[in-house]
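Lecture 7 notes: from sequence to structure.

We start with a single chain of 141 residues. Read the sequence below before looking at the structure.
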Amino acid sequence: MTADRITREIARDGSVVISDAQCRFVFRRLRPGILEIQLFGIDHGQFGTAALDELAVALLREQSLELYVDASQGSIPSVSVSRMWARFFENNRKSLKRVRILASSKPMALTMAIIQQLSNTGYLLQIYSDRELYETRKASS
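Now the structure, written as tokens:
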């Protein structure tokens, strides 16, 4: 069995793209202090800590960050990946102003709600099923 090749690229618009054959993360700085992560496909843990490392770098640069996560094109991550994200949010809650997550499917919304509970961050994480509301919040940030 061969491992898929994982790549990290800088897109023309300055976004950072981490991907393999099954999944892609796009990290886009919208404005100073505001970052959007788009998820496409499924993260089984094949990236290790690469996605969280990218987010950690943004936190170091910005000091305080408002995060938007568009998981509408993503599939439910593995349990270990969900735990890693929950731990990251818990450990960095003081540097995160707000985390808004768009989860269009019920299974993804449930997974994000579990991450919200595991992170012990209260209402820091807000989960949206309505794209229009998510986009409105993003535009008003």
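The beta strands are 7-10, 16-19, 23-31, 34-41, 65-74, 96-102, 125-128. Keep this in mind for problem set 3.
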